[in-house]
Amino acid sequence: MASTDYHNAALTVISDEVSPGALRWRSPSNIALVKYWGKHGDQLPQNASVSLTLDGAATDTTLSYLARRDSGSGVAVELYFAGELNPAFTDRTRKYLERLLPVYPFLRQLALRIDTDNTFPHSAGIASSASGMSALALCLVSLEERLFKPLPDRASFFRKASYLSRLGSGSACRSVYGGAAVWGKVGDLAGSSAEYAVPFADELHPVFQTYHDDILLVSKTEKSVSSRAGHGLMEQNPYAPARYEQADRRTREMLAILRRGELEKFMQVTESESLTLHALMMSSQPSYTLIEPNTLHIITTLRQFRKETGHPVCFTLDAGPNVHLLYPDGIATEVQRFVRDHLSPFCEDRAHLADRVGNGPEQLVPQETTGG
Ligand code: DP6
User: Fold this and answer.
1) In this structure, which residue's CA is closest to atom 3 in ligand 1?
2) Could you give the domains of the chain?
3) Among 3, 69, 109, 295, which has the minimal tally of Cβ within 10 Å of its Cβ?
4) What pTM, to 2 d.p., does this model score?
5) 172 CA to centre of ligand 1 in angstroms
6) pLDDT digits over 274-290, tens only?
7) What contacts 112, CB < 8 A, 6 or more positions away?
């Protein structure tokens, strides 16, 4: 698919025919097993990636709209986060929506209000761009269907939502599917693309369908280097070419692991991926570190626990100090006791969130709307 295939100058409305309305979606976060790190062009990934979709960590977004009398050149939008008008988020969202004008020229003809909030604590230091951008993208595709006509089928709906999510934040394109999702061209995966993610839930071995992800909050502070800046530093990273080749190979490997339910290999690739991600940050110029001493304490303590008990529990890391523990449902009681007794002391205020693989986004009934 070409990046301009969704461009459609015909998607404009006749203002008098649009009555005010609202749409609401809940969309989850996801945790990458093989990491996207490095991009080019218009938000295209340098390598393929694969993630598990989470359940509890999600964003709820309501998109309210009414016809604008004087459609100006830009997009009229206000974003309220947790009930308060947020100028910084409003600005970022306006820029995002203006980039979508070739796809959705009607956005200029509406006054938009976005009300968004996360289901997890605001100060948890958890990245919300994946859940946030995908929730908004889903609202936009629903709005297209309401103002024009339904997309041919549900697969087309989610593919377009994934495409629009990607333009907002790369990892967000994987959040529109439950279970697991793959982003990037992968040889043996039909339909896979760098433009949007594709679902992988149907191929997921049962053991992974109920997998747990306990998020250990080593720090609740916002990270010091944005993902955007981190991706940028990959351009000069001397290991970049080898890394992109490795990640593509590991994505293929991980898909086989996820199909077959191979826990040993899963742990080996997943842990190595997260440490490779942080090694890339440390070997960038300028170099930076996002892991903290307690991140390493958790990793060491976890590996000791695994050695002693033989339990197949492993860790992964995002672009930050927090640790995600991934494990099958069958050992949940033991792992959760271990987290409480031995790992939570390494967390800020002993904070950790129990999450698991989820079913993907859900359309909700909008609450009372106030319009744009
Ligand atoms: C480390 O998707 O946050 O979480 O595209 O600039 O918004 P942008 O970056 P973002 O990068 C996430 C990187 C990661 C790995 C991953 O989720 O694959």
Assistant:
1) 227
2) 3-203 (3.30.230.10), 208-356 (3.30.70.890)
3) 69
4) 0.96
5) 8
6) 999 999 999 999 999 99
7) 63, 64, 65, 75, 76, 77, 78, 97, 372
